[in-house]
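=== Per-residue structure ===
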Amino acid sequence: MILSVENLRGGYGEVDILNGFDIAVGEGEIVTVAGTNGAGKSTLAKAVVGLLPRVTGRVLLAGRDITTLPAEQRARAGIGYVPQVANVFPSLSIVENLEVVEGVRDRKARIADMFAAFPTLAERKRSRAGSLSGGERQQLAFARALMTRPRLVVLDEPTAALSPAMVSGSFERIAALVADGTAVLLIEQRARQALAISHRGAIMDGGVIAMQGAAATLLADDGAARLYLGH
C-alpha cells in the first residue's frame, strides 16, 4: 500500500475529530472518502499530510512510518496536497507559483510538463493567480501538487469552489492522475461523482468509517444511498 492509516485519532485542542480511523490507498488507486459536513473529512486530509496539530495512531507511506514527520518532510517523501482553500499564492504569477515549489528536480523541465498538461495555464503564465477563475485556480493547484512527482496526492474537496459546468472536467482530471502513476486520496462531498471514478470508497461519520468497500458496491447500496449519497 502507498498509504496506510491506522487507528488515527486527533483534532484541535482537546477535542477529537478523528475517533479511530483506518484507511489504505494502493498503487494506482483512487480512494474516495465521503460524508456529510462536519464528519471529519478535511481533518483526515490534514492528518495525512501533517497539518493536524494533535494525532495518535499511525500514518505509513509505502510502509514507512511518517506519523511524526512535519508536513514539509512528508511532501519530500512523496505526498502532494491540494487543500480546499488557500491552494495558490494569489499575488504571484502562474509561473512563479510553480517556481516556488520546493524539492523539484529539473524544475524548468517540470514546469514545461505542467504547461503541457494544463495548456490554459501556459496561455496565461504571466497572469497573477489571484486573477484566475475557480477552474483555472484549481488547475494551478493541481499543477503545484504534481511538480514534485508525488506518489500520492491528497485532494480536499477539489470541486467545492467550482461551478456545476466545471465539475465534470475536474473529475476527469482526477481520473487522469492515476494514468500517470499517482495514487489519489479524494476527500469529496459530491459522493456519487467521486465514487464513479474511484476504485474504493469510505463513508465517514463522526470521525469514523461508517461504511467502506468497492466504489461500485457503495454506489449500489440502498442504505448508503439513503443515508449518505443521496438518491
Observations:
- The chain has a mean pLDDT of 91.
- The radius of gyration is 17 Å.
- The chain has one domain: 3-85+150-229.
